[in-house]
Amino acid sequence: MTDLILGQTLSFSADPFVEGPSAAHHRRRGGVVVQDGRIAGLGEAEALRAAHPDARVTDYGDALISAGFVDAHAHYPQTGIIASWGKRLIDWLNSYTFPEEMRFGDPAYAGEIAGRYLDLLLAHGTTSVASYCTIHPGSAEALFQAAEARGMRILAGKTCMDRNAPDGLRDNAQSAYDDSKALLARWHGRGRASYVITPRFAPTSTPEQLSALGALWAEHPDCLMQTHLSEQPDEIAWVKTLFPTAQDYLDVYEAHGLLGPGGVYGHAIHLEPRERARLAETGAALVHCPTSNTFIGSGLFDMAGLVAEGQRVGLATDTGGGSSFSMLRTMAAAYEIGQLRHTPLHAAQLWWLATQGSARALRIDDRVGNLALGMEADLVVIDLASTPAIAQRAARAEEFWEALFPTIMMGDDRAIRATWVGGQRVTGV
Ligand code: GUN
Ligand code: ZN
Question: Average pLDDT in the 5-19 region?
Fold first, then answer.
């Protein structure tokens, strides 16, 4: 079966942080040919119709077809406590997050939230995510199974913590290694799944646990390793007291074998010059989580400065420290943080970050994150007039970016006309 999906289209031939908005390609009346779950053709709608007379046609009219969104850092177990009031990072973890994560010892609860979470993602146009789980191996099992059932490309790992977390929410160095290794053997490379080695962050792991996970990563260098880095000043001060001989926060990870090109570091707001230089040299990825950084009061990520240094940067919700499941809302928050730093991001840069940039941060940009021949057909179809407020603003637009920007700033799941995963429509019409 060949599908021909018609509408406006948006794709990228380069990085708009390097090339500017001309790195993006918009067709007013374009199309995507999908065969066997992959993109088999791109072009003008009428030419594609003529070339594929037998294809099943889905015509989205004025709606915009893009690669599905890629969320480069999230915590699916925090779905139920998103938007919890009034705390900063360490208090927020202790008051809201850890009690909720405790519940994932029950595989039935983990399965229920994993399904709910992935359905919320698809309703928001997100087709791939890199998610933390909880310390319970069953929490990772539940997410991998739920993603497999939906055909989604998923990256996830059991979160490891063996100190500074409550009873019932700690593993140990050996069990973290053993359980991670068993999950990796079962899921890494199975279908569309990738295992990610996941020490939560330096304060909740002993040096022995960090070393054990560093050793596991050395055995499986094709895996990603995800953790948190320099999110809040209190956290950084705590890391200094816990690891007094480390040069800085990043050095804690490096000293335990947890710095490398497949490292994915969430937040990375308050970095020292040495850390920035080391990250750039390594080719590791930094993930900007803007709704989380304003919601938990963490600070303003230096997108312009980091990108100018050549850092590999992705974009993410950080659900449920982040206050939204929507990558549209996340782009809006990234724009606002850029404004507060006097470096506003162009709509092309925001869209690239939410698709190809995040895919590049997760090293899956050869498979998803762009409309290009041979890519997996994970698509989102966006209604550019999804509410009266957006419609009246978009109606005045004189060019494409001006028509898209109101949806970036004011859009949510109502803007998602349909989501396609692996060439199948999974939400919308
Ligand atoms: N640092 C360590 N764990 C977490 C978490 O769950 N959320 C956020 N935002 N930061 C963290
Ligand atoms: Zn996080």
Answer: 98
